[in-house]
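Notebook entry, structure prediction.
Reason for the run: the old model in the group folder had no record of what sequence produced it. Starting over properly, with the input documented here first.
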Amino acid sequence: MDRLPPFRWVSLGARAITRAVCLTCLAPILISSPLQAQVGAGCMYIADSGELVAVNNLNTVPRSLRSRVVCRDKSLSEVAAPDQLEVGRDVRTADFTTELGPMRVRWSRSVEACFGKPPSRAVSEAAQAVNKALKSGRFASEAKFARREWTLGFIDKASAFAQFPVALTLGGHAGFMMPPNRIYIITDFVSRGCSDKANADALLTQVLLHEMGHVIEFLLLGEPQQPGDRKRAEGFASWFEQYSADFTSTIPAGKVKNEYATLAGTYSAQAGARGFSGSAHDYALAALQFQTIVDRKGISGLMRVYQHLREGEGDFYVAVERGVGWNKATLERQMIELQRRSG
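New structure, fully documented this time:
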């Protein structure tokens, strides 16, 4: 193999707050969007330095790095289950039971150096927080009492680049979820440089809560589901991330809510009219919709919205109007009022 075939690239645009996503929600972007950039004439790999290197001849790649060379982007269907990932040397696995169901975690020992606790413990503690959050409010039974097997994989950037759609690693996404309950964490984007384990543990918990929030929403919507409203999906997961963060000792109470409030800025109807590009600001505004519904109508009100979504009665704003009696303009006024009261 002397010459390597052309490689093409997809850009996801701006990064999210924790760069955590529902991968199925991104399916139209990853699969059918026009290619926005093309880098080099051959293949690419990530060097040990973290640098992205273009290459036309495999012989120029250090032998130890040849397994990292990528010449064809992966599709969603090619992403291996978390418990079957190639995570690197010294593979560690853990199987344990939680109130949410049995969990299977896979990682390489090398990622442990960047965190204060092993990934299995971080997952267990996040699951406890999610369970407490669900039990604390009037969540629908589909989410509150559902028990199913979860699989989670922790992987470094170089290994992820070779096994996931390249948009995820190029976009710096720390985590993503594939329904119904697969969660993937790219550790380089959680603990950058392995320089601050305390903050890395807190951010890892935050990413896990966000991804578990995607699973909770999937349960609320029921099956089958079509890839669709990314703003709604990321809004729910970002709101649930904030809500459940107050049930864990890893993150100070109110810290995540304050972060999102800062990123949201002052809401206006003009801001709401813009499309969802995936920026941190977009995530915060999408979450504000859910925070407003819960603030005025409670968890039970939000669950009425999801009941209408589950039954296929229109989009999110139709479901809001049928569930809590607010049209889109009223929801926006309530968001502005919530910010005024909270500010």
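Summary: The longest helix spans residues 280-310.
The old model has been moved to the deprecated folder.
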